[in-house]
Amino acid sequence: GEDVEQSLFLSVREGDSSVINCTYTDSSSTYLYWYKQEPGAGLQLLTYIFSNMDMKQDQRLTVLLNKKDKHLSLRIADTQTGDSAIYFCALSRDDKIIFGKGTRLHILP
Amino acid sequence: DAGVIQSPRHEVTEMGQEVTLRCKPISGHNSLFWYRQTMMRGLELLIYFNNNVPIDDSGMPEDRFSAKMPNASFSTLKIQPSEPRDSAVYFCASSLGSGGAGGYTFGSGTRLTVV
Questions:
Q1: Count of CB pairs separated by less than 8 Å, A with B
Q2: Quick check: A43 contacting B, CB < 8 Å?
Q3: Cβ contacts of residue B65 below 8 Å, gap of 6+?
């Protein structure tokens, strides 16, 4: 299987919480990241979590890391239309960062 | 800092022509990465440099693709001859070392269309 797996699509109603999930195979990563890609733009680092942390909160964003299950999630509270984008899970490995294929978040009115 | 700068933003070329994509990394970053993004294959790492030296080019699809980094502030990705299947968005990214907490900083990409 892939090193980093994400579901390809997620639809959420405006105002609800979005939860984007990611599973990975390599448990040696020091940093785990979430990137956001808006239409026509490059990837932008949203947040990261250090491997010895379980949770990190930054305004509307909450990152949860379950090392035992090799599961990373990104929760976006009070989802807005501006959150419509592709979200990439990524992990540090050796001298590189490995990216998932991205989850396209669609906001329903 | 203006971020990672890529040019051109859009390129339309005919099959068989040579295409050169350009990238200026963030000043002080010593690692540079070239990616290709398509709907079918997602984000693919083509090649990366550390201190201007190519470290891993295993992602370069064919001999038609070549990349150079003549100095710390400039890199090119060349496709010669181009083919329709090369149509994609090509991203350049840079980082300090392997990224750490800062990760990679991406440019806005070059959308290449080969007709």
A1: 54
A2: yes
A3: B46, B77, B78, B79
Measured between alpha carbons, how far is A4 from B16 in angstroms, rounded to an integer?
35
Interchain contact A10–B (C-beta under 8 A): no
Q: B52 in the Ramachandran plot: left (φ > 0), alpha (ψ -120 to 50) or beta?
A: left
Mind listing the pLDDT tens digit for each residue in B52-80?
999 999 999 889 999 999 999 999 999 99
Cα nearest neighbour of B107 on chain A: A42
Phi–psi pair at A72, nearest 5 degrees: -125, 140
Q: In chain A, whose CA is at the least distance from the CA of B97?
A: A95
Residue A83 confidence (pLDDT) above 90:
yes
Look up residue B55 and give its amino acid: I
Give, in degrees to the nearest 5, the angle at Cα B70 between A44 and B113.
55
Best of B37, B49, B53, B94 to disrupt the A interface by mutation (most A CBs within 10 Å)?
A: B37
d(CA B68, CA B49): 9
Would you say residue A1 has pLDDT above 60?
A: no
Q: What is the DSSP letter of A38?
A: -
Which structure tokens are listed for A58? 């930054």
